[in-house]
Amino acid sequence: MTCKMNSMKHFFLSLLFAFLSECCLAQTTAESVTYWVNQSYLDCIDSGQSVCRCEEKNKFLICHLVSDSNRLLIHPSIYYSWEPVQLEIQKGKAHQYTVLPSPEREMGSGGRLLIQGSQLRFTVNNKTTLFTQGKFRRLERSLEIDMGRQLSIINCKPLQKYTLLACPNSSTVLLSQSELARLMARGEVSINCSDDYHYTELVVRGTSAQYFMDYRSDTIKLYRLPTRNRGEKVDKSALKDCQIYVKKYPN
Question: Of the candidates 142, 171, 201, which is a domain's last residue?
Fold first, then answer.
């Protein structure tokens, strides 16, 4: 009898824990959070270059200042590191921080942070990266994971500035601008550089929808992409369903 009561107790405690976890997650993800986004990276994707190319050009993409624990969290380019970067900082004069040396991150001499209004300047190894402040609706409990998701949504924004057309052999568009906007608002779409560094891909969360993006000077083609193995090359001639983003120019 005692064993049965203990089992029931554990069962209800498990249910209570699951319920509280969901409530806490809902409360957490309803919060807003401040991140700083690399301005050079923003300019790069806005110019119509691929996400892979822009990551290759920029080392640190988005960061978060955790002032109460003296840490700087950074989501880096996959060309620099697959792991989030965490640096220790010390508060200095008003709006200034010293970045402590981190030899394993090629920062043996440390660096400095300077906040000026909505801009943050991160200087290390005599190179300064300018970040622009933004407020985001938090999607993940982990800040490191959330920064990655936020960046993948930011990567979608330049597409809204293009005119959308169906490809000549396609009867309709694959992803309308209104649907893209809806998915972005819900945090359900992402554009990232593939883990083999070859392709920029668009993925809709919770579905099997995956698209390959082909960047040209004034256009971006979006192809429906079958699941591929890592390192496998995409044969564009075999991809039939596609749509074209055409860059808009001022009159």
Answer: 142
Instruction: Please tell me the predicted confidence (pLDDT) of residue 104.
Output: 66
Contact of 86 with 79, CB cutoff 8 Å: no
Number of domains in the chain: 2
Residue closest to 62 by CA, chosen among 131, 120, 129: 131
What is residue 226's DSSP assignment?
A: -
Mean residue pLDDT across the chain: 84
Of the candidates 30, 241, 33, which has an alpha carbon nearest to the alpha carbon of residue 134?
Answer: 33
**Host domain of residue 161:** 156-247
CB 36 within 8 A of CB 113: no
Q: How far apart are CA 198 and CA 230, in angstroms?
A: 10
**Mean pLDDT throughout 195-209?**
89
What was the pLDDT predicted at 233?
78
* Chain centroid to CA 178: 21
What is the per-residue pLDDT for 107?
67
Task: Dump the DSSP string for 7-54.
Answer: HHHHHHHHHHHHHHHHHHHHHHHTSEEEEEEEHHHHHHHHTT--HHHH
Shared domain check, 171 and 136: no
Same-domain check for residues 237 and 161? yes
Which pLDDT value is given to residue 251?
58
